[in-house]
Design a protein that fits this description.
Layout (H helix, E strand, L loop, with lengths): L2 H7 L10 H20 L6 H12 L3 E2 H8 L3 H13 L3 E5 L7 E5 L1 H10 L2 H9 L3 H24 L13
Antiparallel strand pairs: 1-3, 2-3
Helix pairs in contact: 2-7
GO molecular function, one term: DNA-binding transcription factor activity
Subcellular location: Cytoplasm
GO biological process, one term: response to stress
């Protein structure tokens, strides 16, 4: 019997430990906490690390492209970029061809940081004591969840719940 089936057929379908949303929330929070002592010596927060990962993958990038890659609103991303610029990791500049577009580039310091950061995934895997195969399977499953929830949110808005009947 799968966990999904168990959660849907348990006598208490609303038990906290049966909720996928709870498991995802706790996993996200504890995973970010796991990164904190690894990233602190580099002067990065977890959100800043994600920005750097996106820029190490492709740079320069526009603010819009970076926001799309990180699945963040540009307004949410802007303070992260300001802090990364203040620490010398990136540079923000207006596009010469489109004054409205903000271009984000890595500085030499930002490029050098990648060499140190290359050890982070292995350190996290060792800390978790999970096999590479398990971590890859987990990542793939989470990407399926992201795709499914993104599609569901875009294509089928859920109707509001009806009010509960009055208790007697």
């Amino acid at each position: 019997m799968t966990n999904q089936h168990v959660a849907l057929t348990e006598p208490n379908v609303l038990a906290l430990e049966n909720q996928v949303c709870f498991a995802l929330t706790v996993a996200a929070r504890t995973t970010v906490a796991l990164y904190k002592p690894i990233l602190e010596p580099l002067g990065l927060t977890h959100p800043q690390y994600l920005v750097m990962l996106a820029l190490w993958e492709q740079h320069p990038r526009t603010l819009r492209s970076l926001a799309e890659a990180l699945r963040l609103e540009p307004a949410t991303l802007s303070p992260l970029l300001k802090r990364l610029e203040a620490t010398g990791h990136i540079r923000r500049e207006r596009s010469a061809s489109d004054e409205r577009a903000l271009r984000v580039t890595l500085t030499e310091q930002g490029r050098q940081l990648r060499l140190i950061a290359e050890t982070i995934p292995e350190r996290v895997a060792r800390t978790l004591e999970m096999s590479p195969e398990s971590l890859i399977a987990l990542r793939d499953t989470l990407n399926e969840v992201i795709r499914a929830t993104t599609t569901a949110a875009a294509t089928s808005p859920q109707p509001a719940l009806a009010p509960a009947p009055p208790s007697s």
